[in-house]
Amino acid sequence: MKFSRFSIYAWVLVLMPFLVLPSFADLPDDVYALQQRWAEVNYQLQGDVRVQAYQDLIRQAETVTSANPESAPAWIWSGIIKSSFAGIKGGLGALGLAKAAKADLERAMALDAEAMNGSAYTSLGVLYMNVPGWPVGFGDSDKAKELLLHAVRMAPEDIDANYFMAEYYQKQKDYVLARHYLDAAKNAPARAGRDVADHGRHGEIELMLLQLADKH
To answer: Is the distance from CB of 60 to CB of 67 less than 8 angstroms?
Structure first.
């Protein structure tokens, strides 16, 4: 997919699945609300309604991070929301959102790199995988691989870590490894309270399986 003129392309992942969707009962209530609303906006809304909902959600995330400046999960979800909206918005605005998401995720890692099963590693890895490289953006395939592999090692049964590792290898045309990680994602355990997110992710898994069906 290509953004318009000042284009940033290769944002297939950033568009919607973007980033990790961990579910933890001990999240602060306002952070948990971000997590739940993200799934609704990302998977259940379309068009202008979704754009407006993302704008509202970004403002909500800013309120949450202001109230919880030392909470790594709050910064992770702020980064996820901005990244997801970047893929919808496109153009120069998308790059600005991607940079803001990167800053949020790096702040989360500085606070607690292992928060939410290392979700920031996956989320940041997907950004590096999809944002254009220099001189347009900060994208870096090698850095993406390093972060995504670290995420899988931290949470080998995580649906998102495996899904995005599969996406990385699909982009690299290593279809054997892509299928390996996609199978792991498909067989990942369900996440309590994450029905909407899990349903959406499994739809994306099935789509990638179809894309890989005729690859050798």
So the answer is: no
